[in-house]
Amino acid sequence: QTHRISRARYEAERRLRGIDSLKEHFEAGADGVVVLDDAGRILFVNRAAERITGFARDGLLGSELVDLVPVDQRPQIADAIARVLAGVNVDTFDLQLSTTSGSPVWVSASTSTVLAGTGAVILAFRDVTAERALELELRSTKEFLERLIDSTVDAIIAADFKGQIILFNQGAERLFGYRARDVIGKKPVWELYEHGGARTIMRMLRSTSHGGVGRLEQTRREVRIANGETVPVSMTASIVYEGEREVATVGILTDLRERIRMEQRLLDAQQKLQLSEKQALVAELAGAAAHELNQPRTASMGDAQLSERQADKASETEPPHLRAVRIILAEAERMAGIVKKIGKITKYETTDYVGSARMLDLDRAAADSHDAIPIEQVVGEDSQTGEFTAVAPGADVVRETPSLADLVEL
């Protein structure tokens, strides 16, 4: 027992002599320094360590370093002590130390085996609280920007000036059909465009005619997706600078396929609407024309029939003008057929006319119109005003117009 006590006293004195020999060096340094024994008890603390932790030297000597760190970091301290005493330095690591102010500080710690032969471990550390807070803020900002870029519907692609893709968001994955991990650093950006497209975009970026040097206003281009299909896109782009040096390009692309389909559907709908309006107009004009033509036709036809009957009763020989009257009657009947076709117009159909002109095709425009309501037909003459009365017959009944001579006889 006396031997063990003497041995322990000897080792302690040897450690103290070793510490004393390095004390001036420790005190001159800007980093905090603590010397620990094999049990992790503090044997020495320099002024920088006092300043960082806020604890006085007398309050730290003899205490264990693990009392100043969180529970989850204590195994790391024990492992570092064991490895240093075995003659192996430990890589720099971060520790969170308690302070007298109540706010912990983050320190970057490193070890030394200089006193390992005496059973002591040198632990040097510097305050990196501000740096770690900045790193955390930058990491949070980076993660937020990555989430923001990935949540964007449009495709966002960035490439360095060697043409290697360095950014490929989820919108780009949806547009091109590639996975980001298969593209970033592996596929040159010009393979995403039609032949010569990337070179054209760079010329436009360096020109003053498309939004200024380094900027490309919205333009329509074509890109080539994974299945080889060419897709129209609307894109804007810009050059990223570090000072005056060009370091990267970034482009934002919007898939135009659905928009083009919508525009085509809208155009088709407009054309159908125009055709429908045109057909309605033609039907209205046809109704008006049929109504207005029926009145003079019926009057002319009635006069001709009356003249024909009077000529038959007046003389046994045929008067010379009777041939002209019959021609008038025949043409009036022909006009009746034309008017009937006009009254049955239900659609807009044209045929070639003189030169490049076109005219309404009555036969086709009135085809398949047996269900349509025929245009009003003249059925009688008002005895007081001399005007003809017209009605619209049923869809399935078409009454022939009585002649004026028949009405006179009645």
Could you walk me through the main structural features you see in this protein, from its secondary elements to its overall organization?
With 410 residues, the chain is α+β, with helices and mostly antiparallel strands. It is built from twelve helices and 14 strands. It has a five-stranded antiparallel beta sheet with strand order 2-1-5-4-3. β13 and β14 form a beta hairpin. The protein is rod-shaped, with a radius of gyration of 51 Å. The C terminus is likely disordered.
- Principal-axis shape: rod-shaped
- Please state the average pLDDT score: 79
H/I helix tally: 12
Distance between the termini: 157 Å
Query: What share of the residues lie within helices?
Result: 40-55%
Order of helices and strands: HEEHHHEEEHEEHHHEEEHHEEHEEH
Q: Give the radius of gyration.
A: 51 Å
> Which segments are poorly predicted (pLDDT under 50) over 5 or more consecutive residues?
369-410
- Beta fraction of the residues? 15-25%
Strand arrangement across the biggest beta sheet: 2-1-5-4-3
Structural class: alpha+beta
User: Sheet with the most strands?
Assistant: 5 strands, antiparallel
Number of strands: 14
